[in-house]
Amino acid sequence: MDVISLFKTLLKFKSITPNDDGAMEFIKDYLNNFEVIETQKEGVKNLFIYKKFGDGEHLCFGGHIDVVPPGDGWESDPFEPVERDGKIYARGAQDMKSGLAAFLWAMKNAKNFNGTLSALITSDEEGDAIWGTKYMLEILKKKNMLPDYAIVAEPTCEREFGDVIKIGRRGSINGVLKKIGLQGHAAYPEKSINPIHKVAQVLHKIAGVDLDKGDEYFAPSKFVVTDIRAGMEVTNVTPGELKMMFNVRNNTQTDKEKIQKFIHKHFKDMNYTLTLKESAKPFITDPNTKVVTMLDKAIKKETNITPKHSTAGGTSDARFFAEYGVKVVEFGVKNDTIHAPNERTTKEEVIKLSKIFKDVIKKWE
C-alpha cells in the first residue's frame, strides 16, 4: 500500500471526536510487527505502537485520528475522499490524517533504526484532550517508556510546503474578572456604584496591551478582551456587577502571577474578583536540538527550502510531550483549509512528507 492509498483509507473513517470508527484497529493491522499499548477511557481511545530496533534513543511520532464535524458547504461527501486537480478533498485531509499517513508509512518502511521507533495516536485532540495524549504519556511515564524526541505531524506550513517547523507554542490563559458595584436607579447615579463606568476608566489601559516584549521566537503576550457584559437590558437600572472575560496567549515571559499583578495594578482601588485558568503552558525546543536539525536537513533535501522556526498559532498535543521533558517539534502539510468545508491537501505534499519522515528515521544517529 503506497502512502496515498493509506491516506485515502484513513480519510474514510468517520472519526469525529472522540470516535475512531475502527481506525485504531486498522492501524494495528497495518503495523502488525510493532508492539502495542492501548488505553480507553471516557470514550477516548489511545494507541501507542512501538518497535525497539536497538538500544539507542526513542523517537516518537505524535498525531490524532479524530476530526471536527464536517459542517455544511461541502461539494462532496466529506468522508469519501475525492481527488481533483492533484488535490484530495475530505475532512481531516490537512488536520491531520495527511501527517498520520506519512509517518505510519515511514514507520512501516523503516528497515532499521538506532533505537526505539514509536507513534502515539489519540482520538481526542480536537476535544477536551483530557484522556488523550496527556493520559497516554502518564501511562508511558509509569512504564519508563517516555520518548526522548517527538515529531507531531500537525499541518504547519504557511505559503508552501516545507517553509515552517513549529519548535514551540504559546500557552493559553483564560481569565474572568468580576467588578462588583451597587445596583441602583439610573436617575440617581450618586446612590449607586456603576461597574461599567469604573471599568471604562481603565479599559483602554489593559485591552490589547502587550504584557511583555516577546523574543526571537515568540510574539508578545497580548491581553485580549473577549467578552464584557452587565445589566438587565433595561435603561433605568444601573448594574450591580460587570463580568469581563479575556485570553492571553502567553510566551515564556508571562505567567498567571504576572497577569494577576497586571490586573491588580489597574483594579486595586476597586472591588473585584479574578479567576485565571491555564489551559496550555508555553514551551520552546532549542533549534539546535537533534530532532530540529535532522528535520531541517530532511526538509531541505526534499524541498530545497530552509524552513522557518516558528511558535505561532494555537495549541496542540505537542504541549503535553513538552511537559514531560520530551524534545518536541511539529511539522506537516500546508495549513490553509483546516476545519473548513472542502478541506484538502495535495498528493505531492503527502508524498514529500512521507519521504521526509522516512529520511529522518533512516539517518537518525
Structure description:
By secondary structure, the chain is of the alpha+beta class. The chain has 2 domains: 3-169 and 282-363, Aminopeptidase (3-Layer(aba) Sandwich), CATH 3.40.630; 172-280, 2-Layer Sandwich (Alpha-Beta Plaits). Helices cover 27% and strands 27% of the residues. The chain has helices at 3-11, 23-30, 97-108, 133-142, 195-206, 256-267, 290-303, 318-323, 347-363, and strands at 35-41, 44-52, 57-64, 82-84, 87-89, 115-122, 149-152, 164-166, 168-169, 172-180, 184-185, 223-230, 237-238, 241-248, 272-280, 283-284, 308-310, 327-330, 344-346. Strand 4 (82-84) and strand 5 form a beta hairpin. The radius of gyration is 24 Å and the shape is elongated. The protein starts with a helix and ends with a helix. The mean pLDDT is 96.
What would a concise description of this structure say?
The chain has 365 residues and is of the alpha+beta class. Helices cover 27% and strands 27% of the residues. The protein contains 9 helices and 19 strands.
Ordered list of secondary-structure elements with their pairings:
Layout: H1 3-11, H2 23-30, E1 35-41, E2 44-52, E3 57-64, E4 82-84, E5 87-89, H3 97-108, E6 115-122, H4 133-142, E7 149-152, E8 164-166, E9 168-169, E10 172-180, E11 184-185, H5 195-206, E12 223-230, E13 237-238, E14 241-248, H6 256-267, E15 272-280, E16 283-284, H7 290-303, E17 308-310, H8 318-323, E18 327-330, E19 344-346, H9 347-363
Parallel strand pairs: 3-6, 3-7, 7-18, 8-17
Antiparallel strand pairs: 1-2, 2-6, 4-5, 5-19, 9-16, 10-14, 10-15, 11-13, 12-14
Helix pairs in contact: 1-3, 3-9, 5-6, 7-9
